[in-house]
User: What shape does this take?
Amino acid sequence: MAKSGRGKQQLTDQQTAIIHSKGDLRINAVAGSGKTTTIIEYAASRPSNARILYLAFNKSVKLEATRKFAEYGLTNTKVETAHSLAYKHIVFKHNYKVKAQGYKNSEICQLLSIRGNGEKHAEFVIANHISKFVAYFCNSDKAKVQDLNYLDTIVDPNARSFVRSFYKLIEDGTRLLLAKTDRNEIEITHDFYLKKFQLSNPALPYDYILFDEAQDASAAMLDVFMKQKATKVIVGDTHQQIYAWRHAVNSLDKANYHTLQLSTSFRFTQDIANLATAVLTWKDHLFDCKPVAITGKGTGKNELVKATIARTNLGLLLKAIDFITDNPKVKHIYFEGNISSYTYADDGASLYDVLSLYNGNRDRIRDELVGSMNDIDELEEYVEKTEDHQLATMIEIVREYGNEVHGIIKSLKELHTGDENRSKAEMIFSTVHRSICAA
Assistant: This one.
């Protein structure tokens, strides 16, 4: 056996059962339940010559896990993210160049020579749907684009109507963009090399594979994991899935393995555990999710903290604007991360670009897509056909506050306290993803 670095710290009965388990295993772990410690102890209890792979969810988790496994002296355990694993197998081997931020709609229009066929700004709408279809395919476990129906991802009636009208053009454009990437004619995206890794049917040289935060895994990565001959341990929390919008699947529901629970949290008290259990009971009524009763063994804090959490940067910005508008006497607020990043959409469009379009100041617009619109009404039509929620939020902010936006953003920056004064904040603002990293 590998040597445990845990010392005299007491294990719960649930942790002990996991550590001594055999065969493929599914672990449903609540927040703060000692999941990482349990995984490390599980690895430490395997033979010292066993080859173990720990799959972390992102780079920051990978770095922390690497440190912890090293502290335990587990030199037989390799720590990777799904993307770092795929990068080594695909990007190095084929000498691809990676485009870190993905392709903007304007770039897709140029690469594929997309024309709008007479409909206003149709080329940008088509490019937007091609970009989303590529992401849908790359995160799926399907072998061909034709195996998916992109309409399944569209909710808005206007967007569905547009996609139906241009479906063949969108599907053909998706296949062409993927083919250009595969032939190394254009830079590869992170989604693509993970997909290519999955389609290569890799046989990973490990005896045990520990897949953490599996509730947010893509179907592509789950497919790789499930096909391995190693003993597989899949770990996550069915109630903490936050990447469904990125086509993640709740992998715990799809892995038909023996199931054990980690339902005792050391992060909060029993009062909070009771509240969490009650909330999940309501979720059970709505979605038949069968929640597990949570036990809270944390000591808790007397410190009162108020926080506003949103899924997107721009959604959070709107909440922050509403907060300081409704509370003019507030003195301190705090943003997790760089406050300036909250005024930008993922594709680089700025709130100020939309404001300039609203004011007719076309010479101040930097984003090509926004700059192609005659006015904000046209931009709104584009949003309706693409379900671009981030641009929709920008339009909402600009329509409600107009030129006051400059002063409001200035006020937010002035009220934002530094990390050293975070405790003074009367409200903390964070996206879901940043709040998890901060925790």
Remarks:
- The two ends are 32 Å apart (CA to CA).
- The chain has 19 helices and eleven strands.
- The longest helix spans residues 270-287.
